[in-house]
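Troubleshooting: if your tokenizer reports a length mismatch, compare your output against this known-good record of 266 residues.
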Amino acid sequence: MTIASGREESPSFRLDGRLAVITGASEGIGRAFALGYARAGAEVVLVSRRREKLVEVQRLVAAAGARAHVICADLRKLGDIRALAADVSSLVDGRDAALVLINNAGFAFTKPALEVTEEDWHRVLDLHAKGTFFCSQFIAELMIARKYGKIINLSSTWSASTDIGKSVYGAAKASITYLTAALSTEWAPLGVRVNAIAPCATLSDNTRLHMQQDPARSERLLGRIKLGRFPEPADLMGAAIFLGSPASDFITGQTLFVDGGWHAGR
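Known-good structure output:
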């Protein structure tokens, strides 16, 4: 057995020299991650179905002094994921850039279990679970070839707690938490770290609209957050940058709850 000598240098939280693939980057949390990563020094690949919105984010990233690439893809379709991976492979070919993948694409879904249809099930699970798995699989191949990479999945407090209308969404997010641990076990020896961030209801534009439509439910959910407010997308940024940076190189298989204390003492 070899015991390594202690590391004395300070860890870097910068993302210089990293190429970050961010799914669902056209708005909300994904858009915030794109801008945060750009400001921390990363080059970013913006992925979504909506080119027009991605181009808007690309302009903001450029204004922050970073480079952004736009790739349109429907992550419920394996062909689109395969094409995305091919485009990313072309971007890093011949370069030393370290790859980061943020599997953020998804949408909030609330519907009583007795009303859920087969179409609902596939719409939620195909994007959250299938999309996360196959994006990870294809991009991990590129990381493994480089013997290094970071995958950050977006889980949710609903993966570990229940509420009316959250059966399908919670099942999808619980699958992401499990996949995070399972993939980390397989890929850690190959240099790929896999972690997840699990926020509670976060104030994106869509979430704000839902809260306005049901203020009683919003007040009840707020009561579960120990810090007394709903998070903004920027509140998740520290965790995302940390998990994508060299400072977290000895962390894998973890789900970090960024939820203002929702998960504590449940």
